[in-house]
Specification:
30% helix; 81 residues; 12% strand; Aminopeptidase
């Protein structure tokens, strides 16, 4: 569970930092099963929003999360020097 700065209306949200499934176990529903357990855990604690980051180059992951109802909400920018 993470918290937004006071300027935001929504104070707490569930933060999914990583979810990975080994290649030989992909496309068998394991990722979805893990996600549904995570979602249930957040819901049981009154958390009604989840957030995560996905690399813009990882189209498979983007499709996976969008199939679970996640929507893009902001872009993270960076600069290397």
């Amino acid at each position: 569970v993470s918290q937004n700065p006071p300027v935001f209306n929504r104070k707490e949200f569930g933060l999914i930092s990583d979810l990975a499934v080994k290649e030989q176990w992909r496309n068998k529903g394991l990722g979805r099963a893990i996600f549904y357990q995570i979602e249930a855990w957040f819901k049981s604690r009154g958390i009604n929003r989840m957030e995560l980051e996905v690399a813009t180059t990882n189209e498979i992951s983007q499709r996976f999360w969008q199939s679970l109802g996640f929507n893009p909400c902001r872009k993270k920018l960076y600069k290397e020097y």
